[in-house]
Design goal:
mainly alpha; globular
Length: about 180
């Protein structure tokens, strides 16, 4: 159960902020997850949704990279909602169940393909050490270029922010398949 009152319908907001609710619903099809808490600060919720729309739908990164980064971020930060939401997104982006299982089981980077291992290592380094080692940085810089590496970093930051919000307020409205619920 959420630790604060959640905002489930636009009528829960002042009339001048209801357009933000509508914009979030239009961009995602539903207002849920972190927005149930973020809407206590409507301007913050709207700006977060705008950033998320870029990260998820307009980034120069391949959707598989975005979803792998989201999954690893969710798992590293033990965010049940974000994990559950992105299992399905990851599969739709073409990430196999074997890769999803490996992330869920926190397998070593060596257990992933070379390209996936780069992303897994990058996300884990950012979230665990708060830095990226030179080898990981240079490999992804060569692969993604400056724009791609900046967008990957922002993607990890975006999902970390959502995970912190969801975890702080104990919000979990998405359910993962049974095998991924621990």
């Amino acid at each position: 159960m959420a630790r604060i009152a959640i905002i489930e319908k636009k009528e829960d907001l002042q009339p001048e902020h209801q357009s933000i609710y509508d914009a979030i619903a239009q961009s995602r099809g539903v207002v849920g997850g972190p927005f149930l808490a973020l809407l206590h600060s409507p301007e913050l919720a709207g700006r977060t949704a705008h950033l998320g729309s870029y990260v998820r739908f307009q980034s120069s990164l391949d959707p598989k990279i975005i979803e792998l980064a989201a999954l690893v971020s969710a798992r590293e930060l033990q965010c049940k909602h974000e994990w559950a939401a992105h299992v399905n997104h990851a599969q739709k982006a073409g990430i196999s169940l074997d890769i999803i299982r490996a992330v869920h089981q926190c397998k070593d980077a060596a257990d992933f393909t070379f390209e996936d291992a780069q992303i897994v290592s990058f996300v884990r380094e950012v979230l665990r050490a708060h830095r990226v080692n030179e080898t990981t940085f240079q490999a992804l810089y060569a692969r993604l270029g400056e724009r791609g590496l900046v967008e990957l970093t922002a993607t990890v930051g975006y999902y970390a922010m959502l995970a912190c919000t969801l975890n702080t307020f104990d919000i979990a409205t998405a359910s993962a398949p049974e095998e991924f619920r621990s």
